[in-house]
Amino acid sequence: ADPLVRVQLGAQVALSPFAKHTLNPQWNFEALLRVDAHALDQSELLLEVCQRGSPPRGLGAARVRLGGLLL
Q: Which long-range contacts (CB under 8 A, 24 or more apart) does 11-15 make?
């Protein structure tokens, strides 16, 4: 498997590099996304692990509501 992480905040999307030839991937990358402090309560961060392909196949996902997390 060649998985990657897709990070989405609103319309902003960042992709990690593929973790090649592994079933136990680890990522160490940064994604810089702008957060609108005025819309924080409605903001949601989506983290998806996808397998290489066209289109990428989703392997798992987590949604994190940002309201209450940041000051």
A: none
Rounded to 5°, angle at Cα 59 from 56 and 65: 100
How many other C-beta atoms can be found within 10 angstroms of the C-beta atom of residue 25?
17
Angle, vertex CA 40, rays to CA 37 and CA 17, nearest 5: 95
Q: Which amino acid is at 32?
A: L
For 37-60, the pLDDT digits (tens) are 878 788 899 999 998 776 767 889
Confidence (pTM): 0.81
Contact 29, 17 (CB under 8 A): yes
Q: Single out the residue of 46, 45, 34, 33 nearest to residue 69, CA to CA.
A: 45
